[in-house]
UniProtKB/TrEMBL annotation:
It comes from the Bacteria. This is RidA family protein. InterPro entries: RutC-like_sf (IPR035959), YjgF/YER057c/UK114 (IPR006175). Pfam families: Ribonuc_L-PSP. It comes from Asticcacaulis currens.
Length: 123
């Protein structure tokens, strides 16, 4: 397996790559809870649900599912939502093992989202 990075563009116009593959590791760009038209879901739970749907769709383009995730970084504009995020995120996995996680409080995210996730997957 080559250790040279392979860059994958989004299926739409974006000023950055959707993912970069190095060896058996896939690094995904950050995802927020916006739909295909760029509209942000309303409410924290809806944002997380849409965000995870976006991550799932991104992984599917590489023939992967959520259980391929090995690490996530979550950014929240309100750290009091961290426990709620963990509950919603874990529900996406059922009884499958969960990836490692780091969480950061931030002052602002794109489109005024309240949560963003970056993911690393094993191929």
């Amino acid at each position: 397996m080559s250790s040279e990075p392979a860059f994958y563009a989004y299926p739409f116009d974006a000023p950055f790559s959707e993912a970069v593959r190095i060896g058996d590791t896939l690094y995904l760009s950050g995802h927020i809870g916006d739909d295909d038209d760029g509209n942000l879901a309303q409410g924290f739970d809806a944002e997380v649900a849409q965000m995870m749907a976006n991550v799932t769709a991104s992984l599917a383009r590489f023939d992967l599912e959520l259980d391929a995730l090995i690490s996530i970084r979550v950014m929240l504009t309100d750290m009091s939502q961290l426990d709620r995020f963990h509950t919603l995120f874990a529900a996406c996995f059922g009884d499958k093992p969960l990836p490692v996680c780091s969480a950061f409080g931030v002052s602002q995210l794109a489109l005024d989202a309240t949560v963003e996730i970056e993911c690393v997957a094993n191929l």
